[in-house]
Each structure stands twice: as structure tokens, then as C-alpha cells.
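User: Could you walk me through two proteins back to back? I'd like the raw sequence and the C-alpha cells for each, with a short line separating them so I can tell where one ends and the next begins.

Assistant: Of course. Protein one, sequence then structure:
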Amino acid sequence: MASERKKRREFLRRSALLAGGSLVTMAPEGVRAAAWAGGTDAPEKREVRIGFMPLTDCAPLVVASALGYDRKYGLQFRLSRQASWAAIRDKLLAGELDAAHALYGLPYGVQLGIGGLRRDMAVLMTLNANGQGISVARSLAADGVIDGASLAERIRRQPGRFVFAQTFPTGTHAMWLNYWLAAHGVDPLRDVRTIVVPPPQMVASIRAGHIHAFCVGEPWNHYGIVDGSSVHLASSQDVWPDHPEKVLGATRDFVRSHPNTARAMIMALLEACRWIDASHENRERMTELIAAPAYVNVPVEVIADRIHGRYQNGLGGTWNDPRPMRFHAGGTVNFPWLSDGMWFLTQFRRWGLLARDPDYTAVSASINQIALYREAAAALGVPLPEAPLRSARLIDGAIWSGMQPERFAMVSAAQS
């Protein structure tokens, strides 16, 4: 027991040092929010091009632009709607975008050269938690597939027949889908076929019969119910309560060349995230903003219910989810936890995207810009955690804490 405590202390010490701070984070003296917009801390680049996908969780970018939080910190956000996550990746790497609303696993995959060019990447902050979903074709639901257990039973009877869609090979939706299937005894690499479909095309794809199920962000799961094409089987918060989801991503070259711009972006988006979570009325206003044709381009009511935690499954069942999409939660959502990034690395290893274990802590510490985030958060009075790791109990009972990630990947794989 004593040796385990010693190992944990040493692991936490190394994690904190790699993350650029101590275990107890103190606010820098004399830091004031207004200072970042002028003087030596003025943004090196004032007009920043930020890509996003038409999803509910692009909300912080839209709110920051609409309410002027970008201009408060000397920036002008130029938001650019993109057609796919691959387009966001490619435009970041080509310099056509300065930053992006990105799947958590996207910059990690690029950092490791999975499926394409390798480039040093940066995660500046997390934009939201929770709020993704797994849906199945209504025709399957009519045939008795109404939950994970009945889906698994059907797959066992017809292995290899069903086609599932996710949104990007190293993205969050691929990992939620794989983990959820494995927790129900389904091997996602052998028992089903998986393809990539951009989020706005999911409902049309399932309506046309090209896929049998999908994992995607909102509002597309709820849109499938309204459309009559799909029903809800699970939420991502069922897999990992209060999990990280989208991040503000950039290349590390951009952050090195524009540290004040990067800090100002974090501050503007922290204010936007805090504003969204501050009241029911703010969420209503946010829903109206993002529903517009330039952003998500769906009716307000398609977004509104789930953003308030009001869920339905399309089969008559309704409930209030205690963990709907969150954007701030006192800063807990936004902190770029090392353990969050490390979890995605364990899943890359588990599902064959990595041939060997990386240095989990070092890779995550190199990507997640904790020191920069601390400066921005301290300036705004946003609370900071004492350590860069956190723990959670996942759907299969496994407890993820960032400790011994190699063993977690192996145990996780064995559980499937």
C-alpha cells in the first residue's frame, strides 16, 4: 500500500512538471483581464480564422463572437463552417485556419501521425462535456432493438452485417461507440463494420439505408428522432459521465508564434462558456444563436430540449438527464486535464491505431497547453484544480484516473 501511494505521488509530480506547473496552482500576481487586450500582452494576430462543425457544441465560438467576448480581448473571430472533421484537420495543417472547434482525439491523432501527416498540435481548452449520442435505425427498433443488450443480441445472430457510422477515426464518437459496444460484449473491429460520415449527413444516411446506426453529436441524434429515421439507444454521458468532448485546437507552431492571441482566445471562450451555463435564459439565447443558417441550420426546437436535459428515445420514453451538455461547470469542463488526453491515447492503443504504447503522460503534456490555460483562467478568476489528473467510473465499471495507462488499455481490452 505504501509503495502504491509513493508511485502515485511520483506520477502526479511528473504529470504536474510536464504540464508546466506545480500541484498547487497559484494565480499570477497582478494579472487583470483587461491587460491582455493592450500593451505587451496584446494579441500578435487580431483577426483569427476559426473552423467549426455544425453541432450544438460549437456554441462557445458563436456566443463569443455574437456577444463580443472576442473583441473584449482584442480579437475578431472569423468563424468558418466546415463540411467534415477531415477538412478541419487539413485546413489547420495548411494554415487556412488558425484554430478550430475540434474533436478531442483529432489533434492527438495528428500529433501521432495516425492516418496522415504528423504535426505538433495544441489543445488550448475543452469547450464542452457530455451531449453526444448513439442512435439506431427505426426499422431495427421496430424489430426489437431498443437498447444495448438487444442490439448486442441481434449482432451476435448476424455478425458482420450491420454498418455503424462515426465521424472521424481518432475522434470522440469513434471512441464512445467502440467503448459502448465493447461494454455490451460486441467487438467493434470484428462484429460490425464501421464507416466515417460527417455529422450533418448522418440522418440522411440512415434514412437511405446506407447505415444501421451512428454515433454523433447533437442535434443530429434528436434530429433523427424528429425526422422519424432513428431512435435513441444511449448517450455518451452513459459511457463516461461528464466526459470531455470538443476542444479548441491549433497547431503548436501557431501557439508558439502567437501566445498572446492563444491566451486571448481562451479568455474569450471561457467567458462565453461561463455565460452559457449561467442561466436557463442564457441557454435559450444560445440555442437561438446557433440554430441560425450560418451555424447549425436547424429549427430551434431540435436543439432546445437536449440542451436543457430533456431527452426522449423516439419510442415514447422521456426523461431528464442529470448530465446534459455542459460548457463550464465552474471551469471543471474547460481545464485541459492531462488524464483526459491520456484516455484517448489508451483507446488508440486498444483499437489498433497505435502499434505500441506511447509515453502517455509526455504526449498529453506536450499537447494540452495547461500553463497557458492557467494564465487565462487565473486572470478571469476561474478556479483551477490542484492536479492535472481526474478520475471517473466508466460504463463497464472500470475506473480511469490517468494512473498506469498501459495497464488500463490492456485491462480495458481484456474486458471486451
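----
Protein two, same layout:
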Amino acid sequence: MPWNESNRMDERLKLVARLLDGDSMSSVCRDFGISRKTGYKIFNRYKESGLDGLNDRSRNPRRHANKIPFQIERTILRLKREYPTWGAPKIRAKLMREYPMIKPPAKSTVHAILARNGLTKKKRKRGYKAQGTTLSDPHNPNGLWCTDFKGEFMLGNKKYCYPLTITDYSSRYLLACEGLESVKEMGTFPHFERVFKEYGLPQAIRSDNGVPFASPHALFGLSKLAVWWLRLGIAIERIKPGNPQQNGRHERMHLTLKQDATKPASFNFLQQQDRFDDFIEVYNNERPHQAIDMKYPGELYTPSTREYRPPEPPEYPYHDKTIQITNCGRICIDGRKIFLSTVFANEYVGIREVDDKIWLVSFMNYDLGFFDENEGRVQPANNPFLPRLLPMSPV
């Protein structure tokens, strides 16, 4: 059957609907141009999780927390034009005097409005500069996994495919190759969770410094994905920027993947994923690898003994308080809100008073930084993830 211009979720829904109507798996897969293996994979995900197994969650915010009436925003911009040297505090105070009947926005909101309209002085950002970490060289399966996104390519239906790949460093075993619609962070979580459930947990994961594995504007370059790995007891390794050879084994697999499974590209995501699944089977169990004495990766790889379980909240017995970070990345203490980072949203941290009204913030075994009664945000400590993240041990 010819495919319509629809995304992969629509295609999966149509496939499941036909199976629920009583059509045989063979005929449905034949009409959709995919293997029965892929068909059963899609149908089993539907039976396990319902529609959530077919559709990604919306990434749009449910509400806009700082949305204010346009009349107030227009007044703020007028005051800035009249008094160009004034900052957010003075403009807010003037707004309160001229319009005492309205609830004034916070100073940070006024500043955000000015910044959005290019009316603030740009300060040099003290952003995180990626440096790379110490890299390990384990000789046993699951001592280190490597992950990356192979370069995107266009499918026949004009949609871009971004293959997420995961390999075992020691055995070269290809754990996953999933064609995704983007490299956005939230879309990667289900695939890593599936791999963790199937193969267990590695000691460490190596990646580059790009999204979603790292976040250039967050504390120590951490991303939500990296924080989740840390919660699971997985160390994070990052290659030095501009040095893809530090993940050379994985990059070599990408070259084979490109030659064998993407040229020419399939028409849609389901057909392309079918080719990826076939590639995984051949790569792991049929293709001799020169680097491992012409053996198959499947002959060398064994799943990890570290079983995946959703992590329990960390405990901080040697800290003064355990605090859950708000959804917007803040520490709430004694009526104050101290910004940490949104990558720690809803996570638990420990705080400890190390000097008079100076507090240390820790996440698990990592000291993140300090704040005092005058600071509105955590000032970073020395990067705890350099040069060594966690001691490496064979599985």
C-alpha cells in the first residue's frame, strides 16, 4: 500500500488498528512494507503501554508561568524608552507608582521582558566550557557503553531520521539503533530505559558533549539524561570537543551503518527501522569483526549483572537538610528561592552549613556549589566530574 505523508506515530496507529480489527500480522506487515519482527515489536509495545507506547509525550509547556498582560509589558517598554539608563528595579518601582492598582511583576520578569526586546546590557556568560573527561579502557562487557547520534539523513517522505546508537565498548556489541525524529532529550529516555531493562546497567557511558548527552548552559554541562544516569550509578565519560577519535570504535560502527542500512534511505520511519533491526542482527551475529579476531560481537557480549530498577531518592545523612528541587530548578529554604539548575528539577539534594550562613549543595556524592543569604543562585564549586567520574570496575 502507498504511504501517506504522516509521521511514524500515525503509521503505528494505523498498523495497530488493523491488527485489532483481526487482520493477520503477515498481511499487515506485507502491506506496510515491514518485517513481522518490527510488527510484533510495535504491537507488543501497544499491549504493554497502550497509546503511550506509540506516541511521544508532548514537549509543549502546559502553562506559561511568567505570562503577563500585554498592556503591562507595553508599559514596561515605554518606561525603558523614556528612561533608557534605568534597569528592571527602577522600572518596576516606577510602574508601581504610576499604576498602584495592578499587581506588579517581579524584577526578574521585568528584566526578562527587557532582555527579550534587546533592551538590556549583555553580560559575559560564565558558561560551562566542555573539556572532556578521563577516558577508561575496560576489557570486560558493560564496563563502558558508547552512545551517539549518527548524522541525520532524509527519508523518502522528506522527513529527517536521527539514529540513536548504543554499543558495548569491549565486545563491539550493538545494543540499540533507533531512528528518531529529533535529538531532543525527552525522546531518548524510553530507548535507554528499554536497553537498560534488556541488558542491565553499564559501569559508565561515553558520549560527546552535544545534546542530549550534555547541556552547554547547565551546571557542569550536565543534562537531564546525564543526571538520570548518575542516579542509576552510571558514570559519565565525555570525549574532548573536536576529537571524535576518542569514541573511535563507535564512529567506525557508524560508517558501517551508513553503508549498509541508510543508502538508499527507506521511505518512512517504520521501513527504516526495519532495516536498522536487520542491521543489528547481522552486525552482532553474522559479521566477523577484524578488531576482535574475526569473532562476532554476540559471541563475546553478556548482559550486565546490574539489574535496572528505577532509582530510589538519594539520602543525605551527613547534611543538615534534604531538599527536593522545584520543577523550575530552585532550592526553596526559609522562604527563599535559590536557583540551581533545571536539569535537577524534582531531584533531591543535600545542603549543609559549612560556614556562617554559607551552605554547600550536594547531589549524591558530588558537591555542586555554595550559596549564602545574599546569593540568589548557587555558585559552582570545582567541577566534581573532572578528571575522574567514578572508579571503574569490571562487571
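The chain has four domains: 8-53, 70-116, 145-300, 321-380.

Let me know if you want the two compared in more detail.
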